[in-house]
Amino acid sequence: MMKAILSVALLAALATGLILPLAENSVFAQAPTGPQGGSPPQQQNPAPPAAPSMAQQPPQAGVTIAVDVPIVTLDVVATTQHGDIIPGLKKENFRVLDDGVPQTITNFVPTDAPITMVLLLEFSSRGYYSFFSQVGKYWATALFPSLQQKDWIALETFDMKSRIEVDFTQNKDEVMQGLYHLYFPGFSESNVFDAILDTVDRLKDVKGKKSIVVLASGVDTFSKHTLDQTMKQLRQSDVTVFCVGLGRAYQNFVDMNGGMGSMSRMNYLQAENQLKTFAQETGGYAWFPQFEGEMPGVFRDVAAFLRHQYSLSYSPTAGAKDGKFHKVKVELVAPDGGPLTVLDQKGKKQKFQVYAREGYQAPKGGVGD
Predict the structure, then answer these.
(1) The domain at 113-306 falls in which architecture?
(2) Deepest of 21, 165, 277, 341, by most Cβ within 10 A of its Cβ?
């Protein structure tokens, strides 16, 4: 069995957390949504792009004309069997199957927009010495070296309910200060289902690529929503979910302090499977580090996934408004439609993996809706 290695600083933090109330942000920042929002009127000195916000914005006045043409958009990443990103792919290298039926890709762009990410952190008093809140808080700091000046990040925490600690900003120091100002959590609940869905709802008016990075055990204790309800709503969203599970690190920690019962181990195994499912269904990925030293590599991978996504769009040939879940599969092919060959620097053939949303929930409606 591998022995857990915790730094002296981390053990000290676990043992001597300050007992202060956790402030709740009940009012969201008021700012226009989307880093890539609609084009403003032409000005002699145009203003810079507005910051995205998780605030709910009032509808804008004016008249719009909508054409009801169902479009499915997928953010896709391709890697080798070793996890290396495959760059330089073209539209002809992708084949999309909707319920097994080939589709015509109508739009294809390699996305190079800034990262728009919510760091969703479990901050509850569960576990010995409030393990998950304290470890998650310090491990989250490994994210920032992988971010660039143009990237947007928000910090949100959850226990019984979710709280916006820092709204979207390009100032990484502001988010770091938000982490440092988290003290002792007030509740032992970990309502991860509700927290994810609350965050997805807050992101619905944020334009462009957006993702949630969940740093948590994955154990849900008291949510209003079930796992099935959570998955159904995630299938209707355009948010990619990445998960960093803390359950394995906690089991190592407990094994050093007396051991964990079989029922508890089963709970953490179930939680790990839930995190994997959230990621797979939305086109993301899940990591389960055991040691603090793994975190920089994990967050480098998160950033690499987000920076090397391809955006594919198509109009479904059938069932676009049947209200059913449609299974989607994205394949890599050669330009002539045959098998794609990927070689490493030594000319050795590589297997590859495609990461994309596994399907979508079609709206239900008919002619005239």
Answers:
(1) 3-Layer(aba) Sandwich (3.40)
(2) 165
